[in-house]
Amino acid sequence: MRKYITTSNVLLILLLGLFLYPLPSGKIYWLLALLAIVLKISQLIIKSFSSNEEKRKSTADVLAILYLFFGLWHLFSARYIILSKLLFPEPEVVFKMFFAELPDLLQHLLHTLILLTNGYVLALAVAIPLGLIIGTNKRLLNVADPYMRVLGPIPPIVYIPYAISLLPTFQLASIAVIFLGAFWPVFGNTIHGVLNIPRNLIDASKVLNLRGTTLFFKVILPGAMPSICLGANLSLLFSFLMLVAAELIGSSVGVGWYIRHFGAFGDYPRVISGLIFFGLIVTIITWGTGRIERHLLKWTDTVK
Amino acid sequence: MIDVLKLGKTFPLQASQGQAQSVTALHDINLQIIKGSIVSLLGPTGCGKSTLLEILAGLQSPTTGEVRLEGLPFATPIPTDKKLLKAYQRQHRFLSPQANRLFHNRPRHDIAMVFQDYAVFPWKNVLDNVTFTLSIVGVPKQQSQEIALGYLDKVGLLSSKTKYPSQLSGGMKQRLAIARALCVQPKIMLLDEPFASVDELTRQQLQELLLHIASATKVTIVLVTHDVAEAVYLSDKIFLFTPTPGTIYKTIEVNSPRPRRRSDAELVALQNQISTSFR
Q1: The pTM is what?
Q2: Which residues lie closer than 8 Å to A128 by C-beta, 6 or more apart?
Q3: What percent of chain A is modeled with pLDDT above 70?
Q4: Residue A75 placed within a domain
Q5: What is the pLDDT of residues A227-255, one digit of tens each?
Q6: What angle is formed at CA A201 by the lines to CA A199 and CA A206, rounded to 5 degrees?
Q7: Which of A166, A304, B44, B152 is the most buried (most CB within 10 A)?
Q8: Is the same domain home to A254 and A105?
Q9: Looking at the structure, do residues A78 and A152 belong to the same domain, yes or no?
Q10: How far is A140 from chain B (nearest CA, A)?
């Protein structure tokens, strides 16, 4: 019996009480109660799939904080209206809006994802091979170094206005800007990774008579992989940043545009829906890249 | 048979005043290593013994003198003259002219090296580290699996064949490095302070393993070490080095028969003799 009395379970019961106890007007929040239960079920599913004992415990705590947040939000915006109605719409309104707007949001997402994958994948496809080649060639490295020092630190956001005027379509401009934002972190880290391959591994490869493409693909690429992954993660974050910045400035579609557009009209339920949606999408993408990274780096002792 | 003739190595060094200086790591080294023997290069750190081993491995080229392998020139100085250097580079287009020279016109992989810090590929698991090495020599996949398992069995790593090096202890990594070096059936095995970073008990185990391999395969073993007891216990011949510049100061033959005992009075006396000669 004892093991069921956890923080998240107690909060769930309190929350259900809060949602199901009718308002003076007789209104009962069936939908929110359902949401709370769905969250609990998904936590149980995640818990049963995770192998790590510590992680299993933390899922409940994560959920507890989410419940607390929902409870307070509901309490002060629906039951006791302390917060401004305009800036803090009720959870239920946002929740309904989220599902009503989902088809629209997905359509905007498509545009956003096209920009993101084009810019990001292009950056990876150019930066990683270039970094590997430059990292293994001393002369090229000396040439590239000053350019990296000058061009690398320029915040890519400053390119946006010029890129929009320079390139014929907004799509091209955003891809270019995302490319610029994502390129430097992964490029720099790839070179760094190549230079940091332990000397003894290179020596060992030489004694094994490795050279040319075998040396390149079997030693240098995997040796630089931890650093490349680090750079790719950084680049992904930069891409999100550049993407939204570009959409906020010059687009007429996309999730970033959606948030800015409805923000300008003071339609905050839509804005919050957009924020939640964007958060979910980013989580899914980073979860996916995390899986890829874990697979690529399964040999290191830091990734479990 | 390895012949080292009047070998010298100087490293260029940029002095703080902008004047180019150089450090002599090896000076006038002459030695001969007989086929199938175990030889130790013994000396304090910084006496150039590792440099000599790297020259033997083809990782560096000498500045003067040469190394002959079975009478054939094996390592020679890189020309300093610009024209000669160009011709030399044309001849050796690959990443490292030394590595290229090493396997030029001779059967490949007759030299294997074991490094002090293991240098096994951390992104390959134990089995793959060995099969990868075999694949470089051109052993077909099916066969290489079998051969690799055989060598892993020999060094006692069969039970952890799917582990990654990061999950292995230092001694196990060194066993893997030895298996990797052995699997191509080298004629010469170079070991650069191979047991310096493992604990005493593991070190003794690995030494026994090495002796077992040496007697079973008749491979020539060149061992760099700073451990007097290790050198005396393992070697047929010990070359004592002194630092700055690295020269051979004394050659000692160890004639006591095998298998030896570590506590053998003759060996202990020899150890003491070597230790005092360094003082």
Answers
A1: 0.81
A2: A186, A190, A228
A3: 99
A4: yes
A5: 999 999 999 998 988 888 888 777 778 88
A6: 95
A7: B152
A8: yes
A9: no
A10: 15
